[in-house]
Design goal:
1257 residues; alpha/beta; six-stranded mixed beta sheet; globular; Rossmann fold; 44 helices
Length: 1257
């Protein structure tokens, strides 16, 4: 085996060959697997062996019955167990000895028990050996994989998402486990049974075997066609649903537009229209599946009929076979076919295991480009700390088309503090990552003291560098341990010194457990400022030559910022420091300031020099200093309110964010209680007639299985009939009966398939519609949560809704089917022999259990494995999520060791599982042998002592045994059911969620003479998805009816946010928005939105005609084409539309892709005009246009503004000079407001912006 593995390894295969899966097996493992295979071979031959015994047993029964009939002949008598002619006929000579049936059955019972015991032992060995061997190999693969991943360069992590790596570590390695564990031995066992079964058939009776084989391709063809059709129809169904899905996707992606124009009800109808065709295909699929299942049953019953008809003629007419041989051949072929079918899922497991192994083994074999654990590279004796970038060009491996650094030249002198400033995306952080050698530049080089850092030892280089990031990462352990991560083997004294230097000592000593306080997952228990200071202490403990501060204070509030800043100023002395910051207060006192733009360093000098240059630095300073001033004013006013509040809220929001984050990382399935079946059925009530017919059909289908045992035993009974004519007649009628049963089963299967698919598809469509409606009814903030992204929601509509079917129709069918099966079987068996039935019934639970166990075995022990892997998963998850921090600290080895320590528990669990699992499996395999042994022994007793007819013994046993396996099968359908209940629960959660801002209810104030008077009173607001960033800080501004208000300010200062509050997409956390003196939170939502028209920066159009897009402006009434045209004229759009070939019926393409930006903008304006709104919101409506289209659009806007209250957000000052009020915003508050001339006279922020012509954003 190992030779083969090596041979395979030499050929470089893209896919992993099957034997290559075992490349990590030791000799001991290989020995275990070989022994396991041998056991599986023996185990596989047990079932065909049992057939030989069964044939002999049948012959014995029939012989006994024939002799009994001879005795009924009054010319014969029995003397000393010998049948003789009576004295007066002829001289006495012995005819034959009367069989002692009880003794014979005793022998057979022993055979059965013997085979059963062997099966138990072999089954146990086969499974436990393979599972144990696999567990050892998997543990090794896990270790190798994780340690290799931790050695990869950072660029590799950019191209591979952490989520993907986590799934690979759990799911993919589990798939390999499935492929090299018990499945192999089960496959060997079933394949052996298949071969042996056919051997029995051919050896005992090749004629009959050939006849049966001749008919079997029909079944294969049926199964093949069914698979083909189902695949095709599923494709069609998905395609049909894709159209509805794209509607859903389009609507959910542009939910703000839909909400603003009140198009929810319209969209739900549009979605529902597209669901009809998907529903049709689903019903067809159900019909086809029913048809082919029915067809297969029909063929099987016809096959039975044929086999018994031909077989009985071989037994009766030509006397070639005994009845026993007939059964051996028949069941031999049957068992062989069944086992072949059962062996195929194993092949699937092998295939998916090989697929999973491809990526994992490739990673294990991959050599990292920057190997952090390599010993190579030299270490300098003395480090001065001069860093220089020479013509560095760089792009991230994950986005090769975007140049981040472009011929960058920067010199950082040792012992100086150099600050990097510039807009985001200019390449500041990238430069820092190159110094740490997370990446290598594409061209040029980075040098330390004149040495190219690529020649230095990585661990040594990184040990020189201390880094404090914007969002510092702490590990889930104590504060002391976190600081100790900075340098291994550091003393407690050093830790305390570092903490003091970082201004952290005081707050740590205030905590109850001081340095032993746990910081929580990701440092979630600490506030931002505390985390930052612990991170600084961690950087200082290294005693670094080079200190990198990447926006180390940006996420803090003013007070903690001051503390952290002080700490940083203390530690910068005498070290080479590079600081990146957005807040200028933190950079003013740097020795050198370097301004970045588009990946180049374009200016360099001291604070004052750069201000005179009026470049990048100047623009940044102007905007910020204004904002800071105003904020400090506010802070002074609100000093009376204790500042302690912000700290705790920050802390809470951080915790909240972490919680959200973690909740998302784990699947969101676990949080849901499965829904009750009753509630699911309630949604399905209108389809009750279909369900009724389906249930009746299912009941008939269930009764067919036991009917088969009736016919089967009846055939055996005919073999002991003495009169040839009667015998022939009886055989023919039974074979005919098989045909009838087949035809009945065909029709009921079709009926069941159709009825349940019809009811299920109608349910799916209903749920999809309700779900979509519920989604559109949620407040806009709900969509900001990344779990409710359009993609996630559309998949939820697509999959969850269709999975719910599994809990209604087909599930009911399954249950009814099994109940009918068992019911009919029990009635038959008790009617014919209650004593024997009671005995067999004792075994029924075990048979059902074993059958169910085998089914659940396939779905497997995945859950227990998952739990055992959890601790290891936490470590790997933490390591992969924070790979940059770990690499910066050079702690890869530590994490690999921690991970390996955690792998022991899952390994022990797997060994325990091997034994339990082996025992269960072998028990489930041998139970049927024991059942037969007991039942036939007792049957023999009843036949002899109570004159029970032998065919009834077979009838009772086969009826109950088949019903037992059916029971087990039914229980195996439950995973589907459980999944359905969880899907349903997720769905109901959505339906039951009460949105904070509801569109669908009619409550709330409405009034007639709507004026459009707007007041923002002290509005504070944070987005629910980013609770730690305060967007509005107390906004105060008001607009009178008919006035135009313009917001100006840099991006992120809260301009668009204020507009969204007015639309009531969100409600402010504090303060009020008043319209005509009414609080917006009390106004009816749809009434409010119907009075507001919006034109946004990137207007969103729907995939329909121009006229329909304009009509979308008012969804409450039907709009005539004349109105559309007049609106278009006002928007300067009419002439352009008339020039198009299809005029107003021109399709705009998805998201309006067929039109230019200016055209889209004007359609959006027409759409806003047709509403005839009292309030018009223009959100940067002309910013994306070139000058010419801007003029046209601007004219259109000026027309539209007449007589309406208007709020404009603009980036170009030319567009707002004629506004009534201009409000300059910064950091979420208004810093100055008034008309253009007043503001110019003020010579404040607005004046600076206008005169320097600096861009605002």
């Amino acid at each position: 085996m190992s030779n083969r593995a090596q041979k395979n390894e030499e050929q470089p295969a893209i896919r992993v060959g099957f034997f290559e899966l075992f490349r990590f097996a030791t000799c001991k493992d290989i020995l275990m697997m070989v022994v396991g295979c041998f056991c599986a071979l023996l185990h596989g031959s047990a079932q065909p062996l049992m057939l030989l015994v069964f044939g002999l047993l049948t012959d014995a029964f029939i012989e006994y019955d024939i002799e009994l009939q001879e005795l009924t002949d009054d010319r014969k008598e029995c003397v000393n167990n010998t049948i003789q002619w009576k004295k007066n006929y002829t001289a006495a000579y012995n005819l034959s000895a009367l069989l002692n049936i009880e003794y014979e059955m005793m022998m057979f019972a022993f055979y059965y028990v013997g085979i059963g015991a062997a099966v138990f032992l072999l089954g146990y060995l086969q499974i436990s050996l393979w599972v144990t061997a696999a567990a050892k190999q998997i543990q090794l693969i896990r270790k190798l994989y994780f340690s290799k991943v931790m050695r990869m360069e950072i660029g590799w992590f950019d191209c591979t998402s952490v989520g993907e790596l986590n799934t690979r570590m759990s799911d993919d390695i589990n798939k390999i486990n499935d492929a090299i564990a018990d499945q192999v031995s089960i496959f060997v066992q079933r394949f052996t049974t298949f071969v042996c079964g056919f051997c029995v058939g051919f050896v005992k009776g090749w004629k009959l075997t050939l006849v049966i084989i001749a008919a079997s391709p029909l079944i294969g063809v049926g199964a093949g066609l069914m698979a083909l059709f189902v695949a095709k129809l599923t494709g069609m169904e998905l395609q049909a649903y894709a159209k509805a899905g794209s509607v859903a996707d389009e609507v959910l992606s542009s939910i703000r537009t839909v909400a603003a124009f009140g198009g929810e009800k319209k969209e739900v109808q549009r979605y529902d229209r597209n669901l009809i065709s998907a529903q049709r295909w689903g019903i067809r699929k159900g019909l086809i599946v029913g048809f082919f299942t029915g067809f297969m049953w029909l063929v099987i019953f016809l096959c039975y009929g044929l086999a018994f008809w031909y077989g009985s003629s071989l037994v009766v007419d030509t006397k070639e076979y005994t009845p026993g041989t007939l059964l051996q051949v028949f069941f031999g072929v049957l068992i062989a076919a069944m086992n072949l079918g059962q062996a195929s899922p194993c092949l699937e497991a092998f295939a998916s295991g090989r697929g999973a192994a491809t990526i994992i083994f490739e990673t294990i074999d991959r050599e990292p480009e920057i190997d952090c654990l390599s010993e190579a590279g030299y270490k300098l004796d003395r480090v001065k700390g001069d860093i220089e970038f020479h013509n560095v060009t760089f792009h991230y491996p994950s986005r090769p088309e975007v140049k981040i650094l472009d011929q960058l030249n920067v010199v950082v002198k040792s012992g100086e503090t150099t600050a990097f400033v510039g807009s985001s995306g200019a390449g500041k952080s990238t430069a820092i990552q190159l110094i740490q050698r997370f990446y290598d530049p594409k061209e040029g080089m980075v040098t330390l003291d004149g040495h190219d850092i690529r020649g230095l030892n990585i661990q040594w280089l990184r040990s020189l560098i201390g880094i404090v990031e914007q969002e510092p990462v702490l590990f889930a352990t104590t504060i002391a341990e976190n600081i100790r991560y900075g340098r291994p083997g550091v003393s407690d004294k050093d830790i305390i010194t570092a903490a003091k230097e970082a201004n952290a000592y005081k707050f740590i000593m205030d905590l109850p457990q001081k340095f032993d306080t746990l910081v929580g997952e990701g440092g979630g228990q600490m506030s931002g400022g505390q985390k930052q200071r612990i991170a600084i202490a961690r950087a200082l403990v290294r005693n670094p030559r080079i200190l990198l501060l990447d926006m180390a204070t940006s996420a803090l509030d003013n007070e903690s910022e001051a503390v952290v800043q002080e700490a940083l100023d203390k530690v910068r002395m005498g070290r080479t420091t590079i600081s990146i910051a957005h807040r200028l207060s933190t950079i003013k006192n740097a020795d050198v300031i370097v301004g970045f733009e588009h990946g180049r360093a374009i200016e360099r000098g001291k604070h004052n020099e750069l201000l005179e240059r009026k470049g990048v630095y100047f623009t940044l300073v102007t905007l910020q200093s204004q904002g800071d001033k105003a904020l400090n004013e506010k802070a002074r006013q609100s000093r009376s309110s204790p500042l302690g509040m912000t700290k705790s809220t920050l802390l809470q929001s951080k915790c909240f964010e972490r919680l959200m984050h973690n909740a998302f990382l784990e699947e969101d399935d676990e949080l849901v209680e499965p829904a009750s079946a009753a509630r699911i059925l309630k949604y399905n009530t209108p389809e009750w007639p279909y369900m009724l017919f389906g249930t009746i059909a299912a009941a008939i289908n269930g009764g067919i299985n036991p009917a088969y045992s009736l016919l089967f035993s009846q055939i055996l009974a005919t073999f002991s009939v003495q009169d040839p004519v009667a015998q022939r007649k009886e055989i023919n009628s039974i074979c005919l009966f098989f045909v009838v049963v087949g035809i009945v089963s065909f029709f009921t299967q079709v009926l069941q398939g159709y009825a349940f698919s019809k009811s299920g598809e109608l349910l799916t469509r209903r749920l999809r519609r309700l779900g979509f409606q519920a989604m559109l009814g949620q407040e806009v903030g709900w969509f900001d949560d990344h779990r409710n992204s359009p993609g996630a929601l559309t998949t939820r509509l697509a999959t969850d809704a269709s999975q719910v079917q599994g809990a209604t129709g087909s599930q009911i069918g399954m249950i009814v089917n099994s109940l009918a099966n068992i019911g009919v079987a029990l009635i038959i068996s008790f009617y014919f022999s209650w004593k024997l039935s009671l005995l067999v019934l004792c075994f029924l639970p075990f048979i059902a259990l074993s059958s169910g166990f085998q089914a659940s075995m396939l779905t497997g022990f995945a859950k227990q494995d998952k739990e055992a892997m959890e601790a290891a998963g936490q470590i790997s998850g933490e390591a992969l999520n924070n790979i940059r921090t770990i690499a910066g600290l050079g702690k890869e080895k530590t994490f690999v060791e921690m991970y390996e320590a955690q792998l022991d528990a899952p390994y022990q669990a797997a060994l325990k599982k091997a034994n339990v699992y082996g025992a269960c499996y072998s028990f489930s395999q041998c139970i049927i042998f024991l059942t037969n042994s007991a039942s036939y022994r007792f049957g023999g007793y009843l036949v002899q002592k109570e004159g029970l007819h032998f065919s009834l013994v077979f009838r009772v046993i086969s009826a109950i045994v088949t019903s037992g396996t059916a029971l087990g099968r039914a229980s195996s359908y439950t995973p589907d059911y459980a999944k359905a209940k969880i899907s349903a629960a997720r769905f109901f959660q959505l339906l039951d969620r009460v949105p904070q801002i509801s569109v669908y209810n009619d409550k709330g104030e409405k009034w007639d003479n709507f004026q459009g008077n707007i007041d923002f009173i002290d509005c504070k607001f944070t987005y629910p998805s980013r609770p730690d960033i305060q967007v509005l800080n107390g906004l105060n501004v008001s607009v009178k009816p008919g006035q135009t208000l313009a917001f100006v300010g840099s991006s992120g200062c809260g301009k668009s946010t204020s507009v969204q509050l007015l639309e009531r997409f969100y409600d402010p956390n504090h303060g009020k928005v008043l319209i005509d003196g009414h609080d917006t939170t009390r106004i009816n939502v749809s009434f409010l939105r119907s009075k507001i028209g919006v034109v946004s920066q990137e207007p969103i159009l729907f995939d329909c005609s121009i006229a329909e897009n304009i009509k979308y402006g008012d969804n409450l009434r039907e709009i005539s084409l004349n109105e559309v045209i007049s609106a278009a004229k006002k928007a300067q759009l009419h002439d352009f539309v008339m020039a198009l070939p299809e005029k107003y019926n021109t399709n705009v393409g998805s998201q309006g892709s067929q039109l230019s930006r200016g055209q889209k903008q004007r359609i959006a304006i027409a759409r806003a005009i047709i509403r005839d709104p009292k309030i018009l919101l223009l959100d940067e409506a002309t910013s994306a246009l070139d000058t010419e289209s801007e003029k046209t659009v601007q004219e259109a806007l000026d027309k539209a503004r007449q007589g309406r209250t208007c709020i404009v957000i603009a980036h170009r000052l030319s567009t707002i000079q004629n506004s009534d009020i201009i409000a300059v915003m910064s950091r979420g508050i208004v810093i100055e407001k008034g008309a253009h001339d007043q503001l110019m006279a003020l010579k404040g922020a607005y004046y600076k912006l206008v005169t320097t012509g600096a861009p605002i954003s």
